[in-house]
Amino acid sequence: MHIFEQIGPLEEYLYSCREGGRSIALVPTMGGLHEGHLKLIEKAKEYSDVVVVSVFVNPTQFAENEDFEAYPKTLSEDKKILEAINADAMFTPLDNEIYPDGSSQDYDVGEMGNILCGISRPIHFNGVAQVVAKLFDIVKPDYAVFGEKDYQQLLIIKSLVERQGIQTTIVSVPTVRESDDLAMSTRNNYLSLEDRAKAPLFYQQLVDTKAAIQSGTDISRATEQAVDALSAVFDVEYVEVLNANNLTQITTSSSEIIIISAVRLGETRLIDNIVFRRLDV
Q1: Does residue 150 sit within a domain?
Q2: Whether 168 and 194 share a structural domain
Q3: Domain boundary residue among 139, 173, 207?
Q4: E-strand spans in the chain?
Q5: Residue 2 known to be catalytic
Q6: Do 208 and 185 contact (CB within 8 A), yes or no?
Q7: Virtual torsion, Cα 176, 179, 183, 186, nearest 10 deg
Q8: Quick one: which of 19, 41, 95, 149 has the most CB atoms within 10 Å?
Q9: Residue-range definition of the domain harbouring residue 225
Q10: What is the CATH number of the domain that holds 36?
């Protein structure tokens, strides 16, 4: 596996790959790699000849009161994992490689960045889009692979690619879950043993909400019931049932809907979702 800390040598390597007719996929990560990340890399291998995995904890997507300093930094372990699965290249830039003029938070993804998670994390998606745009400019991947757990992020990145005319195909991978259905996340490591035992109730409630909607319960009523049930265990940030294509309110023509939610358990923020087709469309 090739390991790059600087942009220049990475670009030279990728140029030689393209000259050899090989296609390139990018899997952007912040490290703390787990099985969910490995599924992204596995999917990237299906689409391309060369897989680049970036590991960069991006400062512009964290607010001052968030966990930038505490976010797990496990670079040596991540290297071993990527070597074991035969990733082609690992890109581990320092801040001044990605932001040579200093980081700024003036990137704006528009209205979709201001709803759902964007309400409690108002700069988050602007920072995500900013770093993804920079990584796309450096790597110029034919494909980029993202997980569906971060569904709002996924749609924002798809919009970014379309709006800026970036020649990269976005590939998504379904949420990877633990044996008890908790969505895999690096931040799950923050959970205490007691909270970890409660955490699977989050997804179970989303499953119950889907079943209620499919059995004919009014969406607003099903949402209220979900909030009430989740509130017995979690601090509920939001539960919404929306059009899965654009996160707008459901209309009679909305064929795919998403139940999307964020909660807190202790000091840990959890997000999850379920996308499904309506039975009456």
Answers
A1: yes
A2: no
A3: 173
A4: 2-4, 24-29, 50-55, 89-91, 143-147, 169-173, 235-243, 256-265, 268-277
A5: no
A6: no
A7: -90
A8: 41
A9: 186-276
A10: 3.40.50.620
Give the Å distances, CA to CA, from 110 to 79, 126, 185, 257. 35, 9, 26, 22
pLDDT tens, 127-147? Answer: 999 999 999 999 999 999 999
Quick one: DSSP state of residue 255?
A: -
Q: Tokens standing for 171?
A: 């590939």
What digits encode the pLDDT tens for the residues 206-242?
999 999 999 999 999 999 999 999 999 999 999 999 9
Of 2, 34, 37, 124, the active-site residue reads: 37
Burial group, residue 59, by CB count within 10 angstroms (0-12, 13-18, 19+): middle
pTM above 0.85, yes or no: yes
- What amino acid is encoded at 64 in this protein? E
Q: At what angle do helices 151-164 and 124-139 cross, to 10 degrees?
A: 50
Q: What is the C-alpha separation between 81 and 142, in angstroms, rounded?
A: 24
* Largest Cα span, the chain: 58
Residue 124 shares a structural domain with residue 223: no
**Nearest partner of 23 among 131, 148, 169, 160, judged by Cα:** 169
Residue 61 shares a structural domain with residue 197: no
Token duo for residue 56:
């960069």
For residue 272, give the nearest of 179, 152, 192, 146 by alpha carbon. 152
